[in-house]
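pasting for the record
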Amino acid sequence: MNERRTTNILLLIIVIPIVFYMLKILDFIFIPLIFSMFITLLFLPLMRWLKKKGIPKAINIMIVFFIIAGVVKIGAILIQLSTNEILSSDAVFYNNIGEKFTRLISTFEGFFGIENTEGNYSIKDYFQKENIIGNFSLTLAIVGNAVTMILMTVFFVILWLAESINFQKVMNSTILKQKHSSVKAFMKMEKDLMTFIKVKFFVSLATGIGIGLSCVFFDVSFPIFWGLFAFLINFVQMIGSFISVILLTLFAFVELEISSTLLFFVISITAVQVLFGSVLEPIFMGKSFSINVITILVMLMFWGYLWGVPGLIMSIPITVFIKIILEQYSSTKVIAGLMAGSSR
């Protein structure tokens, strides 16, 4: 018995790195697959309600895609408004911003002793027009990859909604061998995901509105853009709020003169992030997830390294799903307890 247990442990040690390696090199499949699973779980209650009303499955799927298309349309309108807002600024504004930003970068280089010797780039050289144009091909590649991911996500969503792939049956036949356990875990995953999406959406929306209004009140340029940016980046758990505050502070530092106005603006956007991200979000989330901060940070680093930005966005739901699955086995409940910060 001991030899068999040792063999199983050794096999597990060998298999786990292989699994993570496959997740890394096949990210172009697993990222849209996981994204599509989250989207499908989000719309399953609606699909079940429509099914009870006797509406055919094909029409149900069309209704879901019309809803998704409407959300995408609203997002496109907001992006268009923010783009028009930026493009409507005159050349004098950009020249002033460019000069201040160059002075800021020069000060930064001088502080750290960075010299621009012949044949080498300084930091500010990367922001010159020629270098931005030179990176246009890289931008196109990123856009191309994003479009590919979106198309694959749509394809997988269709498969999930049409029940060509049944998440509950997959869990029942692979991870959870007992039907009762798979149903229980599936329902908890669906409930927790709904809670996470609803709370994260409304908290991010409130954060974006708060940031945009702060920009308007303190006369900082591009309030629509910064509000939309704060809304989107806030979906990156913990890190997103820091990124939006730091970038907006740098922009305000470059645009505004150093005065009490700049100080109060930085305090206001920081207060918005703290109020919604650190106070209201944990209250609204309640004890649904009960995952400690250390687990969140470790999973953020792990999934961020594995899948980049998509991994950072999906890290918390994935962690919650893993915890729910571990809770179904008596031998792994201890690990689930450690993830929750308890020893039960």
